[in-house]
Amino acid sequence: MEVRKIRKAEQVFARALSEVKPSAVETNATIASINTVMHRLGKIVDNGVELKVVGSIARGTNLKGDSDVDIFVLFHKKTDTKELVKKGLAYGKILASGKRDRYEIKYAEHPYIRIYLDELAVRIDLVPALKIDSIEEMGTTVDRTPMHADFINSNLSEKQRDEARVLKYLLKEHNIYGAEVKVGGFPGYLCEILIYQFGSLLRLLDNAAMFSLPVILDPKTKNKLSDKSIAKRFSSDFVVIDPVDPDRNVAAGVSQESLARFVLLARRFVADPSMKCFYGQGFSDTSARNMVGRFVKSSGLSVYLLSAKVPDKSEDVVWPQLRKVANMVAELASRYDYEIYLTIPWIANGSGNVLFIMPDSRVRARMLKGPDVFMRDASNNFIKTHKAAMGTIIRGSSIYTIERNRYQSMEDFLRGVLKNGTVVRHKDINLKSAKLYINKIPKELSESAYSEILKRITL
User: What is the pTM of this model?
Assistant: First the structure.
């Protein structure tokens, strides 16, 4: 990279850091809250049980306003999993015993407890785990998390930690940051490991701009590998081997779309380092409904919205079901020759919503490809099966039939899906009671719909 661009990039990073790095006042307040919580827990836990703060705060890579605290309750490595979970949850319930305090039981590989302490205005994830000295002693995958904190604290410089903050900021602004299933983005630990792998944020972006699949990185040796058998072993085209656990791919949850978006961002930044790369198209909740209407009108595309009530369950449970239903509807539509440009599922206001953006088209007839004429039995059977076709044609030596489409429009198709609710459904998603909106969004969903559209069509 040219010296001029390097200087410009460093200036951009410095400005971005000033926007996202917690101030000394915020940091000191967070530390004071953590010390208070640790003191209280120290009086609750049994002798021999160790408390350890992990997560981005402990690693010095948290963003401004992120005061969530992850505390691991570490038990002797021979402790039974059921026993440590039982005790860990009990400790948490005692900690959250204030009048305005509350807690939720959450689930990873085993249950843990999320605590909201009103007095301190902090949210704490209290996670029971085994205290291990090596990955071979791991009972569940949760046990290795403290080792991640140790690795980052031992290997990243202060400057690299700040650059990890800037990377998180960049990814967050473009909706590809976070390990949640609905995001499919880059988790915080992966951001830190990528900085460690390449040495700096600029070198990471410079390399990412030239990524080609499969991308296989080994941070422990800081090598980029070309052995495709590794990608096959991890069943992924984006592999970042955990320096703490060689059998784990830190990038396993990153979707191909998120990786592709990151590569385009890297190319854009390397070509012209600018703060513009950190900002997507602006969002205004006050004009959301009008903006959706303006998008529909200016694009010439049609927008179809399915909205169904969903139970009050964790998004980790409902979201994967909604995504599968959305994909099933889109795939089924393609069978009737309806081309959907964009499928956007999201949850808001107690409803699971799926937006389909596509050309306004009517498909009165469709063409089905049959076997080769010279496959005598197969071709004869195809003709018999489709004897009601509007016509039969030959292309080369293949048979095609032209048939009347079962659904003459996308509206017909979607109403058919709603009527036959058993075609596409999951346990918590039943489209039979869903509402269909065409080229309009109800007021209560306009803000979230507009936000979701921007996440998908801007970069």
Answer: 0.81
